[in-house]
Amino acid sequence: MKLNLRKKLIAGVTFLGIFGAMSGVALAEDDAVGGWVEGEGYWTSKDNYEIRKSSSPTSHQGWKQVRERSGGKQYRAVGVTQWSKQHYTRAQMVGRVSGYVHADSYRVWGTDSTEARSPWISKNYQARTFYGSK
Predict the structure, then answer these.
(1) How far apart are the first and last CA of the chain?
(2) Which of 86, 101, 108, 118 could form a disulfide with 91 if both were Cys (CB 3.0 to 4.6 A apart)?
């Protein structure tokens, strides 16, 4: 009986640990119109694009910056969007497998041109940028 209870307790703790870890994962930008993903290229969301196709950005560029520091290399994502209406640009460094967001510029709002830069981090995660509007 004690062994069965112990197994249930271990299974419960394991489940809570996995569930808790997953709940900490930041999600990608759900309502973005488009963006760029390192190693994959540029994309647009057909669902969101159809809603907003009467107005699309003049351009969107995304890239990863790398700098050398005494402690080693640092990385960040950068995105720039040109759009004549109110819009945002967002830049993130994301775990390739987990999808966890390790560095985030959050939305940078503006009209005409916006530039978003994630904070510098020491791990070489995947750079992603997004853009969207209201």
Answers:
(1) 59
(2) 118
Residues in the chain, total:
134
Cβ contacts of 31 within 8 Å, gap of 6 or more: 48, 132
Q: What is the pLDDT of residues 7-62, one digit of tens each?
A: 555 555 444 444 343 333 344 577 899 999 999 999 988 665 555 555 789 999 99
Q: Exposure of 100 by Cβ count < 10 A (0-12 exposed, 13-18 middle, 19+ buried)?
A: middle
Instruction: Give pLDDT, residue 17.
Output: 44
C-alpha 35/C-alpha 121 separation (Å) is 21
Higher pLDDT, 12 or 133: 133
CB 44 within 8 Å of CB 52 = no
Q: Which residues pair with 13 in a beta bridge?
A: none
Within 8 A by CB and 6+ apart from 50, the residues are none
Q: In the numeric block, which tokens belong to residue 76?
A: 């960040």
